[in-house]
Design brief:
Layout: H1 9-22, H2 35-47, E1 51-52, H3 53-60, H4 64-76, E2 80-85, E3 88-93, H5 99-108, H6 111-122, E4 126-127, H7 128-135, H8 139-151, E5 155-160, E6 163-168, H9 173-182, H10 184-190, H11 195-208
Length: 209
């Protein structure tokens, strides 16, 4: 994973904060600039992988400049890495996840695409119309999100007459495991609807044993 700073406001603000520090305009002797605060941010990212800057800042209640200072340091120390998907740059602990898991976590961190993915686990082979009605978004919006999910390698499509049907690529086990581990509130909302998929995975694991 490489840091992506393509014309991002985050990168510009990050540079501004480093300039202020180097120019002596920031008192880095205060508690917020010490190592324990950096460890706090790292611990949050480990338990909330895929979080973006403002989400971390809001949850931890830290000043934006403090966040930018520590996130830059954590990336420079190779303790975290970032990935840009859509509008947000999301942060992950280094070496905790494989590439495919990062793609899943990217999606699970975004409400619309996450709900489309989970609906397809609940209702395999759903059509564009079914997705549009369930999500209450236009068919064009469904197509846009499906294209992003397909580009991430998570959704397949097949044409059946005048309809295109969509399904989750591969097994559901890893998606549901990551959802349960890192998005427990979403897991609780979806658990009943995904009961059949969860039971299917449990049965498969039992057969392997």
């Amino acid at each position: 994973m490489s840091t992506d700073g393509r014309n991002s406001g985050y990168s510009e603000c990050q540079q501004d904060e480093r300039t202020r520090v180097s120019d002596g305009l920031v008192d880095t002797n205060t508690e917020d600039y010490h190592e324990p605060r950096r460890d706090q941010i790292l611990a949050f990212i480990k338990t909330h992988p895929g979080s973006h800057l403002r989400q971390i800042q809001r949850e931890l209640g830290l000043a934006m400049g403090v966040m930018q200072y520590h996130l830059y340091a954590l990336e420079k120390e190779n303790r975290i890495a970032s990935r840009r998907r859509g509008l947000y740059k999301r942060f992950y602990p280094v070496l905790q996840f494989a590439g495919g898991q990062l793609d899943i976590l990217d999606v699970l961190s975004q409400e619309t695409e996450r709900d489309i993915l989970l609906f397809l686990i609940q209702k395999p082979e759903a059509t564009q119309k079914e997705l549009s009605e369930y999500m209450d978004i236009s068919p064009a919006s469904v197509n846009w999100h499906i294209r992003r999910l397909s580009d991430s390698g998570l959704v397949d499509s097949r044409r059946e007459g005048t309809n295109v049907r969509y399904s989750v690529r591969g097994g559901h086990g890893e998606i549901l495991a990551l959802l349960r581990s890192y998005h427990p509130m979403v897991w609780e909302r979806w658990a009943d609807r995904l009961a059949d998929a969860i039971l299917e995975i449990s049965d498969s694991e039992g057969e392997v044993r």
